[in-house]
Specification:
The chain is of the alpha+beta class. It has one domain (about 10-110). About 15% of the residues lie in helices and about 40% in strands. The chain has helices at about 55-65, 100-105; strands at about 1-15, 25, 40-45, 45-55, 70, 80-85, 110-120. The strands form two sheets. Strands 2-6-4-3 form a four-stranded antiparallel β-sheet. A hairpin with a 2-residue loop joins strand 3 and strand 4 (about 45-55).
């Protein structure tokens, strides 16, 4: 195997006009956890939560919401506490706005449909039979 890159259809996460509206993380990650690890990050219907999360890891959370690759292109460093509330799909009685509107209004971020470059692991060769250790 070796590292590679691939161009896919996906989304670029960028700061909206007027800049990002992100809240710096209040507390450091618990001992033994790295920034962006999923100990307190989740994607639910109508809600995405990230604690002590950088925007690369937040883009990964957005990938599951969008069901497509999302790549951070904000250029912003740091770790944040993120709470994004939005109307679940196929819901007309929510008090929250649609996903893209919520992303822009609450976080000052936007998604653009783009061809994006992603890191891959390319398998050069695989044996049919396992070899003994």
């Amino acid at each position: 195997m070796h590292p590679g890159k691939r161009i896919l259809s996906g989304y670029a996460l960028q700061a909206a006009k007027g800049g990002a509206k992100l809240e710096l993380a209040k507390h450091p990650a618990p001992l033994g956890h790295l920034v962006g690890q999923p100990f307190s990050n989740s994607v639910q219907s109508g809600y995405i939560r990230g604690r002590n999360i950088d925007l690369r890891a937040f883009a990964a959370l957005l990938s599951s919401q969008m069901e497509a690759t999302v790549v951070d292109q904000t250029g912003l460093g740091g770790v944040y506490d993120i709470d994004l509330h939005f109307a679940p799909e196929n819901t007309s009685d929510s008090k929250w706005p649609a996903f893209s509107t919520a992303l822009k209004e609450q976080l000052g971020l936007v998604l653009y449909s783009r061809r994006v470059e992603v890191n891959t692991l390319e398998v050069e060769h695989a044996d049919d039979e396992p070899t003994p250790n």
